[in-house]
Amino acid sequence: MIGNILLLSMREIRRNVLRSILTTLGIVIGVAAVIVVVTLGAGTKAQVQTEISKLGSTMLTVFPGQRRMRGAAQAAPPFEIQDVSALRRETAMLSSVAPMSIQRQMVVYGNGNRRSQIVGTDREFVNVRNWDMEAGRLFSAAEEQTGKSVCIIGQTVKTELFKDEPYMGNVLRIGKASCEVIGLLEPKGQVMFSGDQDDVVVVPIKYFQRRIAGNTNIDQIYVAALDDSLVDAAQAEVEMIMRERRPSQPGAEDLFSVRGVQEMSNAFQSSTAVMTGFLSAIAAISLLVGGIGIMNIMLVSVTERTREIGIRMAIGAREKEVLLQFLVEAAMLAGFGGLVGIIIGLTGAMALAPLLNVPFIIQPDMMIMAFVFSALVGVVFGYMPARSAARLDPIDALRHE
């Protein structure tokens, strides 16, 4: 019986091909839109995880906070090198602590120049940032103590300024200061949180303070937990130490803040999930519209085939067979639209992923869910026309012209 019903349903769909295509258009658009949104959302989440690995998943950043003076918010005092020493001395859950002072300055070599990020720090910077050296060496302890004019460059600086020329041992000019290149960092690439990580020149913190900033301030402190599982405990420990060193008024906000890369990632992924859900809900409206279209065309089909239904029922077809006939027809229309929508959605996501710089990740479970949901839409919206056909009186149906 089921085989005959399927064959009859296919025959009816083929008999009105253009009408069937137009009927399923809403289903096609809805499923395709959902597949595109969900696939790109999954790619974005994967990209965020990749960016975290570039920055270092155990990294925490300590920022100066704000204080209120006469009711107005003002920037809290910057950190000092003693704060860095205290964190190194008093913490048990940190593997590395690095001071950070940052400015954008014009970097010049020969006839080339570019405005790059200058970072004043020490040797532990590469450990905190999970960043390896490609060539050369890190600062020595003596170079850090004396603030010697040496520097480590990123890949972008090397490519843009030195091109094919040798870079090791040559001298860069940073603003009015200069430094000798002693090392090259491995490429990190673009990071959505921080831009081009390779457009950087790293110098000893004392050199930065004396020759570039002109003060002894430290803008931020980077710390790294011993393990991913200890990040929260390490953050609590850092906050406790900083509260002792930077006490605030009772009930007032702390004069510092501690943020983790994972925390920023979670916030971004949460926003992405909300946006993906919102766009998917909008796209799902097309499925509702498509379902109404299927119901409408099936009602028309019942009217057109009233005499055929009467003949079938007169020669012995039962009410449930007629009901099943129209339900299967509606489900096949919707299922066909779902399949076409999945193909179009995957093609669209494949084309858009490189433009958005996110990986293309196929989600089989979502494809199956979209197909099943589209078929259910056909069954739900096809039920009323099928019920109407099954309840036709055979005598009245045979009289219908």
Highlighted features:
single chain, 401 residues, six-stranded mixed β-barrel, two-stranded antiparallel ribbon
How is this fold's topology laid out?
Layout: H1 2-15, H2 17-23, H3 25-55, E1 59-64, E2 66-69, E3 72-75, H4 81-90, E4 94-109, E5 112-121, H5 125-128, E6 133-136, H6 141-146, E7 150-153, H7 155-162, E8 171-174, E9 177-185, E10 190-191, E11 195-196, E12 200-204, H8 205-213, E13 220-225, H9 231-245, E14 256-260, H10 261-304, H11 306-314, H12 319-356, H13 364-390, H14 394-399
Parallel strand pairs: 5-12, 7-9
Antiparallel strand pairs: 1-13, 1-14, 2-3, 4-5, 4-8, 4-13, 6-9, 7-12, 8-9, 10-11
Helix pairs in contact: 1-12, 3-10, 3-12, 3-13, 4-9, 10-12, 10-13, 12-13
Describe this structure in words.
The chain has 401 residues and is α+β, with helices and mostly antiparallel strands. The protein folds into 2 domains: 2-50 and 266-399, no CATH class; 78-245, no CATH class. The chain has 14 helices and 14 strands. It has helices spanning 2-15, 17-23, 25-55, 81-90, 125-128, 141-146, 155-162, 205-213, 231-245, 261-304, 306-314, 319-356, 364-390, 394-399, and strands at residues 59-64, 66-69, 72-75, 94-109, 112-121, 133-136, 150-153, 171-174, 177-185, 190-191, 195-196, 200-204, 220-225, 256-260. A 6-stranded mixed beta barrel has the order 4-5-12-7-9-8. A hairpin with a 2-residue loop joins strand 8 (171-174) and strand 9 (177-185). Helix 3 (25-55) runs antiparallel to helix 13, helix 10 (261-304) packs parallel to helix 13 (364-390) and helix 12 (319-356) packs antiparallel against helix 13 (364-390). The chain is elongated. The two termini are 28 Å apart. 36% of the residues are buried.
